[in-house]
Amino acid sequence: MAYVVGVTGGIGSGKTTVANLFAEKGIEVIDADVIARQVVEPGSEGLKAISEKFGASMLNDDGTLNRSALRGHVFSHPEDKEWLNGLLHPKIRQEMITQTAQAKSPYCLLVIPLLVENGLQSLCQRVLVVDVSEATQVTRTTQRDQVPEEQVKNILAAQATRQKRLEAADDIIFNENDSKPLSEQIETLHHQYLALAAQ
Ligand code: ATP
Question: Where is ATP bound in this sequence (predicted)?
């Protein structure tokens, strides 16, 4: 069985940056956000069920999911949000299991932004949290996405607290500007994970 390291962290904490550095070492990265899109791509059971329930207004002209229409709808219809989560969460979970089981590198990373919020610890052998202060999350995300601070703060408030996430961590990468370089932190963890995976 593949040895799976779950990677999580709040918005703009540096999950993608960290995952890319592991990937440079030949470690396979499976990304929950990519899987969440795969389960509703054209031809999928997920998209078929959505268009049957809500109608063609949830589709773009090219047959892809109209994400903003769906987001807008479930925002104002909580019962439909429940239905959608009930449809998609099991599919996403199953796909995470399938893709991690197929990984060929000595261990793999499973990047799940909402790992703690959705209680997905059982999908991995180890939880790696990318940790930064909320102030750094806000600064980096507003710069990256060119969005107002308020918007980032709202997302932050809807996610698990820094404390809650750290409580779930087996390992932590500190990603402040004055932290030990990421490359060094990752080198140390890479060797730990190779050893753990070989056991
Ligand atoms: P999200 O959950 O929003 O997708 P994320 O956790 O994947 O974000 P990244 O996209 O990796 O975070 O990083 C957020 C931003 O911060 C990016 O613009 C990235 O280049 C920058 N960043 C990440 N780590 C550092 C660092 N150590 N120093 C400076 N900038 C950084």
Answer: 12-17
